[in-house]
Design goal:
By secondary structure, the protein is an all-alpha fold. It has one domain (2-163). It is 80% helix and 0% strand. The longest helix has 30 residues, at 65-94. The chain starts with a helix and ends in a 10-residue tail after the last helix.
Length: 173
Amino acid sequence: MQRYAMLFGTYMGGYWILKFILFPLGLMAPILLFLFAGLTLCVPFMGYYYTKMYRNQVCGGGISFLQAWVFTVFMYIFAALLTAVAHYIYFRFIDHGFIINTYETMLDTFSRSNIPGVEAYVDQLEEVMEVMQTLTPIDITMQLMSQNVFYGSLLAIPTALFVMRRKQEISKE
């Protein structure tokens, strides 16, 4: 199980890395941010496809809920580990505060708008931005990795429910 979870997790991690490239680019070109969101919505379907492939090719067409869930969680963990390497490289050597500065610019633009009642939200977002500026690249990476594992563990539940299947008994007549 671990071998196939690592293999499919590597494929998914590569997908996540390529998808992540669109996020900072999407802050400059909104269509890329939209593409990033669309590709993110494809992740559960990829998880289903890989788990189904594991069931059919390795498990002989049958898999229990628990086995499917554990396989899917492992796959997401391995994908998150691989993606964490790319996140760290990006935030340590490439970003140099680009994402935070872009969000601050957006927040300034939003706060200057004359929308009634927006002040409370702006104050909260400014507090969040102050905390985000104190995070190191490893802090950001660990936060993103833990989110990926957590959400992957949750996505593994419906995936396992859809993929589980009892092995078909071959009747001898």
